[in-house]
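Structure first, sequence second, as always.
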């Protein structure tokens, strides 16, 4: 088993000034070629800290990847620190210098001595040429272990990983095969679905694991097989995927890279139905989710954001008596919002939603997070009262996911 440690250098990462997206991308790419991540560590621009963490990393992993600290400013100390650690001097690399000259010539700028100094690279390292910028990276090797140092700028790092680092790893290390199968679910929580899959998980082959990856309103199930027999692993993954499919069919909306909203759109197109939305508390979030899919005009007629009671009455035709007696957040109001959407938007099926998104506006009877979601056509309606969180953003997001999941199940039954 080949393991890697990812070290991110930079005070700006530690204080939250810059969000570290590099490690998630690098971890994913390394996993794709069969490498496990031992640790991800963020550390300051301090020589002693860098050396200490590299030594610890080499105790736990064969591969160490560093990002950050390679620029021309005084706080970029990674290159010099690595030279000290590996007892290497700096030598001029003409190819790096030529690249710097070309970049500055195109920008019509004069090269500063600090930038020109980037062309001096560690003599004992392999140079990683930077096709997207000026600062080169390096690969040091020792005792069948490697350390690759790259800039922290994401697009520069990604280019180096794709062009040099990953090919080097594949060429120099015997890597296992890692295969994944993704089963995509909605409308069920992580705990509930895991309870339904207990026996299947117990009986998985020893080289296979099941992971639960929850998000708001959805859970991605990831089956991972790791080994050397690709054909055997593919067959086993197909069998276990089918077991899960048969165990929880009502929650599964797709597989692999399927997109939730796109799958619902395909169902509407297959049934030749037009959809419309009447939104209140979500403020157009559901309509946005639907229309972010290219070609959604083939099945989506439009939406009405009836945020006020006046618009619910004047546009959607919700009776004033209904609003007065039951309130805007009620099954009765949402039912009439469905009727109005079907009529005004001239659609075959409608989503209607009203709720208390928060953080204010709640009551004992209808606390913050109370949401009424309805799906209906001229013949049938399904309306549910749900209670979510105290967080406005989460309430809007999860309401949209649940509404679309209710629509998906409504379409299945039609």
């Amino acid at each position: 088993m080949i393991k890697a440690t990812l070290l991110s250098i930079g005070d700006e990462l530690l204080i939250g000034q810059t969000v570290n997206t590099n490690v998630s991308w690098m971890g994913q790419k390394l996993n794709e070629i069969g490498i496990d991540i031992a640790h991800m560590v963020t550390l300051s621009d301090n020589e002693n800290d860098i050396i200490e963490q590299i030594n610890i990393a080499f105790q736990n992993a064969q591969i160490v990847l560093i990002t950050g600290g390679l620029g021309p400013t005084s706080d970029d100390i990674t290159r010099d620190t690595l030279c000290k650690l590996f007892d290497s001097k700096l030598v001029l690399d003409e190819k790096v210098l030529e690249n710097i000259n070309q970049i500055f010539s195109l920008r019509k700028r004069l090269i500063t001595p600090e930038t020109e100094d980037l062309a001096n690279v560690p003599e004992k390292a392999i140079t990683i040429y930077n096709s997207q910028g000026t600062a080169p990276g390096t690969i040091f090797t020792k005792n069948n272990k490697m350390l690759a140092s790259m800039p922290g700028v994401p697009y520069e790092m990604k280019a180096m990983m794709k062009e040099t680092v990953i090919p080097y790893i594949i060429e120099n290390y015997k890597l296992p095969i890692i295969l994944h199968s993704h089963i995509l679910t909605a409308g069920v929580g992580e705990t509930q679905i895991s309870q339904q899959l207990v026996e299947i998980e117990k009986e998985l082959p020893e080289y296979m694991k099941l992971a639960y990856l929850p998000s708001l309103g959805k859970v991605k199930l990831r089956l991972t097989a790791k080994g050397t027999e690709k054909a055997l692993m593919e067959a086993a993954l197909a069998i276990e995927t089918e077991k899960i499919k048969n165990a929880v069919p009502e929650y599964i909306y797709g597989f692999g890279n399927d997109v939730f909203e796109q799958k619902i759109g395909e169902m509407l197109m297959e049934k030749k139905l037009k959809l419309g939305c009447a939104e209140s508390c979500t403020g157009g979030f559901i309509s946005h989710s639907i229309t972010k899919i290219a070609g959604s005009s083939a099945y989506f007629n439009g939406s009405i954001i009836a945020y006020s009671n006046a618009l619910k009455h004047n546009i959607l035709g919700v009776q004033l008596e209904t609003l007065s007696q039951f309130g805007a957040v009620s099954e009765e109001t949402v039912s009439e919002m469905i009727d109005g959407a079907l009529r005004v938007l001239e659609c075959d099926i409608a989503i209607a939603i009203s709720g208390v998104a928060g953080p204010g506006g709640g009551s004992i009877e209808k606390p913050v997070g109370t949401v009424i979601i309805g799906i209906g056509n001229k013949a049938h309606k399904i309306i549910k009262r749900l209670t979510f969180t105290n967080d406005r953003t989460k309430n809007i997001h999860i309401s949209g996911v649940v509404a679309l999941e209710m629509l998906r199940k409504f379409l299945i039954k039609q």
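Margin note: The radius of gyration is 28 Å.
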